[in-house]
Design brief:
Largest sheet: 7 strands, parallel
CATH class of the domain at 2-181 and 232-261: Alpha Beta
Number of helices: 11
Oligomer: single chain
Radius of gyration: 19 Å
Structural class: alpha/beta
Helix content: 40-55%
Number of strands: 14
Bound molecules: nicotinamide-adenine-dinucleotide, uridine-5'-diphosphate-4-deoxy-4-fluoro-alpha-D-galactose
């Protein structure tokens, strides 16, 4: 089976390529490198000892993508190609709508034209908005609080509308919780541009003295220690979830939606504690104001993915901290060695 991995040079895409290749899928990566480096693909080749076909192209470019579809004759598509920074999406919403939605429309149009009937989409727990009940099941009400989240929500609706008139398609919408960590080899990992927005890359950059201290955004949430709670999942577990989702699509299952999380919620202070252990010294932090738009707590009920595709996270928080730190230590400047 030949899989188009759109956005396959990015953080989750590279880890998924490793899992796909190890599961004997043929992988073709298309990425415009707007938020990644080709070196990441070379490193996947090193981990897997496999040459990867790579096209530098924009998934919004119908003509360029059509040439690739004609050349490659895909059996399935995994669509990671999106912009993902929430605060940036508030500043430049049109770029987010343009990139995230158009890339999906182009891929779907070509999937229909060239009969590529298996499609996996990277959605996010952000589509649950500010949860009223926890843990989150797939049937919980959906909403969005920022342009990034709205692109994910709109794309989920687009996929449903598309499926309703293309019932021979199989589509998996995967709602990721908080992916962290890195491949245990230390060769691939998260490589944010500039100052990280997300907790874990910020923590590891403080640990390596690139940043002076972590700002903990709020300790007055109604949670166990007042700091925000999230469902952190090892990126390699998340990546494996894509292989399981593709396997499910091959049973002609129609449109399916799964949470990919662990079901466990950890607070910001618990994350700091886990990193203190692997780094070997305390991570300096200060409590500051809440981050606008943040929610108190968010964690998955992962039962549906377990029952229907056999997905269960195997890495624990200590593994996630160890692998994130290993990546940061070995690659202090990310892929810019
Ligand atoms: P990433 O930025 O590392 O990877 C995305 C990749 O897509 C990058 O390599 C980028 O260059 C590429 N890309 C973007 N637009 C493109 C386009 N138009 N054409 C071709 N390539 C394009 O991000 P990631 O963390 O790997 O996330 C992958 C997907 O998962 C995204 O859709 C993101 O919204 C979603 N997601 C991520 C998280 C997270 O916390 N990382 C959580 C939920 C959902
Ligand atoms: N946090 C800090 N200090 C920081 C960064 C984060 O205290 O410097 C806290 C946040 O307040 C939150 C927790 O750490 O309580 C996690 O924050 P992240 O930014 O790492 O993750 P979010 O849950 O806010 O957002 C992530 C992705 C979104 C995605 C969402 C749900 O960035 O794109 O998960 O999947 F939509």
């Amino acid at each position: 089976m030949k899989i188009l991995v759109a956005g396959g040079a990015g953080y989750i895409g590279t880890h998924t390529c490793v899992e796909l290749i190890q599961a004997k899928y043929d992988v073709v990566v298309v990425d415009n490198l707007s938020n990644s480096k080709y070196d990441a693909v070379k490193r996947v080749e090193k981990i897997t000892n496999t040459k990867i076909k790579f096209y530098q192209a924009d998934c919004c470019d119908y003509k360029a993508m059509e040439e690739i579809f004609i050349e490659e004759k895909f059996d399935g598509i995994i669509h990671f190609a999106g912009l993902k920074c929430v605060p940036e999406s508030v500043k430049v919403p049109l770029s987010y709508y343009n990139n995230n939605i158009n890339s999906t429309l182009v891929l779907l149009e070509l999937a229909r034209k060239y009969n590529v009937r298996n499609f996996v989409f990277s959605s996010s727990a952000t589509v649950y908005g500010n949860p009223k009940t926890l843990p989150l099941i797939e049937d919980c009400p959906l909403s969005a609080t920022n342009p990034y989240g709205r692109t994910k929500l709109f794309i989920e609706y687009i996929l449903e509308d598309f499926y309703n008139c293309n019932k021979d398609f199989n589509i998996a919408i995967l709602r990721y919780f908080n992916p962290i960590g890195a491949h245990p080899s230390g060769l691939i990992g998260e490589d944010p541009n500039g100052i990280p927005n997300n907790l874990v890359p910020y923590v590891t950059q403080v640990a390596i003295n690139k940043l002076p201290y972590l700002k903990v955004n709020g300790n007055d949430y109604p949670t166990k220690d007042g700091t925000g709670i999230r469902d952190y999942i090892h990126v390699c577990d998340l990546a494996r979830g894509h292989v399981l989702a593709l396997n499910k699509l091959s049973t002609n299952c129609g449109l399916v939606i799964y949470n990919l999380g662990t079901g466990l919620g950890y607070s910001v202070l618990e994350i700091i504690e886990a990193f203190n252990k692997v780094v070997g010294h305390p991570i300096p932090y200060k409590i500051v104001e809440r981050r606008p738009g943040d929610i108190a707590a968010c964690y998955a009920d992962p039962t549906k993915a377990y029952k229907e595709i056999g997905f269960k996270a195997i890495y624990n928080l200590d593994d996630m901290a160890r692998d994130a730190w290993n990546w940061q230590k070995n690659n202090p400047n990310g892929y810019n060695q």
